[in-house]
Each structure stands twice: as structure tokens, then as C-alpha cells.
Amino acid sequence: MAKETSSRIRNTRRRTFIKTAGTAVTLAGLAGCSSGGNGGGGGDTETSGGDGGGDGQTGTTTSPSLDGPVRVGLLTPLSGPFALTGQEVQRGVEMAREHLGGEILGQSIEVVSRDSEGSSSGALEGARSLVEQEDVDAIIGPSISSAGLAVLPYIRDQAQIPILPTQVSSVNAREGENCTDYSYFIWVSNRHTVPVGVDFIYDLQENIDRDYNPDQVHFFAPDYALGQNNLELLREEMSSRGGEVVGSTLAPIGTQDLSSYISELSNSEADVITGVLTPGMAVRLINQATDFGLPDEKIMMFNSGKPVDQITQASVGATADGWYGTYFYNPASESEINQAFMDLYPSESDLLPNASCGSGFETMRAIAQSIEQGGSTNPDDMVDQLGGLSWESIFGPAQFREGDGQIELNFVGATRQDTEFTVLEEYPDIIPENRC
After folding, report:
1. How far, in Å, CA of 24 to CA of 29, rounded?
2. Which are the contacts of 278, defined by CB distance < 8 A and separation ≥ 6?
3. Which of 206, 265, 338, 367 is the most buried (most CB within 10 A)?
4. How far apart are CA 376 and CA 101, in angstroms?
């Protein structure tokens, strides 16, 4: 991914032009970006009621000093229906800054935040402000797939600085015309989660004393990009293994009373209910389905962590016992960095240390490592280091693949037993094929 010096000079001049003449760029020219497509969004979440080190690449470094503070833009939904995610990402960024001692190569870390308000237009406006007014060196976020699809073309075509989205799981944001050298994805895509989920459905037979047919599943999810893309990929994956999706149930996001949908799941011919959930819907489904006795009738196994993840657990406790999920974050990990992360997480929070918070924590650490290894905040120097960067994260060994910025992580299939996160299966080194 290394670029010629002339390219670096050209990109730096491009940024200077954007900062001084950004107001002359018409919003009409970006209108197509803000109405971006509907990919997966496996990390999109609805609100429910240090040292940067690691085993990274060794790059050719310039002088190990910087001219001024490191300015990191934070672009997340701090208000609106996805605020819980944004607030946890923000918490993780601040925890990482503390973990790093507040500085990189002797210069202070300045975090400049913009609230995307959970919308594509808000995210694009925030990104433009961070680049053209605040002159940030890199951006963490956005945290919703639709927002990512709006912002990434602007980063690719104009801003040309590193961007590390968090919960942007849309496959469309990482493939084809949206591929860019500047994007690095800490959060997994739906192409990560669906095959692992199907693996776990079959492997679960060896871990539990229940008879069920893994070749037939019924899909349940919120009815927006998150669920729609997962359903499409699940049909493909089950078909490739000789199985099938015998039914699907999509509930409007924000639905409070799920009783009619639970009845539909209960009447399905499938023994397995699978899909993907936002935290809010996960909490409601776990509580209401348990009242109906659905977990006694069906195997309840969902991707993207819910219902076994930490945010859901903080709300439902033992009610999630006996539910199953696949995830890339094992909160029971005894690694040194995960213990540091746990210690930094504020004890007064009503939540538990979680992956959304971890996404902010690890993107800041990755930015720090790219600057430390390259000795520069020049955007192309940082990109050279981020491509192929590997480090020991709270998620385990992590690596950004050079060429498309996708993350390679280990997954687990897990359940909750007496509220404890219990690993049943391990799936190492998960990364989909490069579609750039």
C-alpha cells in the first residue's frame, strides 16, 4: 500500500485546499452520498431503555517527533435512537487516551467530537466539519452503516485522511465502488458473522443435550438494513450447506410488543431461531420470549453477540441463560490488555465493559500505533502503517488487511450460564474474501 512521495505531497495539498476552500464545495455534489445504499449494518444498535503497542508491522520511520498535538475526530451518534452505541464508543476513546497517557510521541491527544445524531446527513455534516474546520488527522466513526455509506465517499474523494468506522457492518461500505485506501474497519461485517453463525448452529449439537434439526432455521431480525442483509446472506450460506431458511420474521425497529412475532416463531417448523438483533430488540425479545416459554421450544441463537453480549447482559441478567450467540469479544479473556480495559471501565456505570466501548478503545490504539511506527501524522504515512497493522487487542489478535481494511479476528460461540459468559466453540482468524 506504500505510495510515492509525490502522492503524499499531492494529498497534503488536497487537504489544505479542502480546509481553506471547503465552503465552495456544493452540498448538491454530495447529495448522492447522503442517500447511500442499504448494506448489512450488523453493528447498528438501537438504544435499549497502553501504549498502542502490539505485534505490528515495522515500517520505515521518520524522526520520532511530531510538530503538534494529535487531533482525532470522533463521529458518533451521541443523541437519537442510536445514542447508546455512540456514547460507549466515546467512552472507549477516552479510556484509550488515558491508557496511552494522554499523548503520542510526546504530543498531546486532542479528541474533537461531532454528534451524527444517527443520520446520514448528520454524519456527513460532522465529517466535513471535522476535516474542513477542525483539521483532524484521522476520524473514528461513524457508528451506523447508513452513515458510513454517506461519509466514506467524501473521505475517499476529498478528505483523504484515515477513517476507522466502528459499527459500520454494511458489506456495501467495504466492497466495490466504496473501497478506499483510507478506511479501516474495527467492527466485523455481515460476511464475517453469518458463516460463523451457521457453523455454530451445526456445532452446537455437540455441546447441548437437545435434539434438533440444524438444516432448517427460521430467521428473526429488525426490519431494516441490518436484518435484510443478514437474511440474504443466511439464505446463501444455508443453501451452500444443504440447509434452508424455512421462514423469516422481520419486526419494525422500535417495536415494543413482540407477542405476535413470538407466536409466529413458535409456530415455525424450524427447531432453530436465528438472526441478528439490536440491543433494544434483544432485551425485549429475551424478556418476552422467555415469558412465552419459547427458549424451551426452540434453539435461540443469534449473531453479532446478542443475546450473550455485555450490553444485553446488563439489562436482562439470568434471563439470557440458555440463549446462544456468536461474537468476537470474550469478556472473560484474561489477556493483559483486556484486564487493563476492564480496569479502566468506570465501576459506577450501569453497563458492563462491552465491545462497543472496545471499538472506540481499539481504534484509538490503532491510530496511536500507526503514528508511532510511521513517526508522522501525514495521512499517507498513517495509511501505510494501518494497512496490514496487527496488534494484541481486547478482542484478541487483530489485523487490518492491506487492500480493503477489513479486520481479522477470532470468534467464539457462547452462551450464558448463571449469567457467566461461557465459550462453547472457537472460530479463529475469521475474515471474508477481499472484494475490492
Report:
1. 11
2. 44, 45, 46, 48, 222, 226, 253, 306
3. 367
4. 19
Residue 38 to residue 229: CA distance in whole angstroms: 8
Global pTM value: 0.83
The residue to which cell 452462551 is assigned: 415
CATH fold of 191-327+413-430, please?
Rossmann fold (3.40.50)
Per DSSP, the three-state class of 299 is strand
Give the cell for residue 374: 510511521
**Of 176, 152, 179, nearest to 164 (Cα)?**
152
In whole angstroms, give the CA distance from residue 330 to residue 394: 8
Q: Tell me the CA end-to-end span of the chain in Å, nearest whole number.
A: 13
CA atoms within 13 A on the CB side of 216: 10
Instruction: Take residue 95 and report the three cell numbers written for it.
Output: 479510556
Other Cβ atoms closer than 10 A to 359: 30
DSSP label at residue 317: G
Coil/strand/helix, residue 271: coil
Measured CA distances, 395 to 22, 203, 208, 298 (Å)? 38, 22, 26, 30
Residues 117-158 have pLDDT tens digits of 989 999 999 999 999 999 999 999 999 888 999 999 999 999
C-alpha to C-alpha distance for 215 and 246, rounded to whole angstroms: 10
Residue-wise DSSP of 129-174? HHHHTT--SEEE---SHHHHHHHHHHIIIII-S-EE-SS---SGGG
Tell me the β-bridge partners of 400.
Answer: 407
Q: Which three cell numbers stand for residue 86?
A: 455512540
**Given this model, what pLDDT does residue 56 score?**
42
Helix (H) or strand (E) holding 217: strand 216-222
Q: At what angle do helices 379-386 and 5-21 cross, to 10 degrees?
A: 120
* Amino acid occupying residue 375: G
CA dist., res. 275 & res. 253, Å (int): 14
Same fold, 5-22+37-188+334-405 and 191-327+413-430: yes
Give 52-72 pLDDT, tens digit per residue: 344 444 444 444 578 899 999
C-alpha angle with apex 340: 167 to 311, nearest 5 degrees? 40
DSSP labels, 32-75: HHHT------TT--------S-SS--------S--SS-EEEEEE
Kindly indicate whether the domain formed by 5-22+37-188+334-405 is annotated with CATH number 2.40.360.10. Answer: no
